[in-house]
Amino acid sequence: MVKEIERTGLPVVHMCTVVPISLTVGANRIVPTVAIPYPLGNPALEEKEEKILRERLVRRALNALTEPVDSQTVFEK
Amino acid sequence: MSKIRVLHYINQFFGGIGGEEKADIAPSLREGKVGPGMAIQGAFRNEAEIVATIICGDSYFNENLEKAQEEILQMVREISPDLFIAGPAFNAGRYGVACATIAAAVKEELGIPAITAMYEENPGVDLFRKQLEIVPTTNSAAGMRNAVKGLVPLALKLARGEELLGPEEEGYFPKGIRVNYFAEKRGSERAVDMLLKKIKGEEFKTEFPMPVFDRVDPAAPLTDLKSATIALVTSGGIVPKGNPDRIEASNASKYGAYSLEGFVDLTEDTHETAHGGYDPVYANRDADRVLPVDVLRKMEANGEIGKLHEMFYTTVGNGTAVASAKAYAADIGQKLLAAGVDAVILTST
Question: Domain of B320?
Answer without folding.
Answer: 225-347
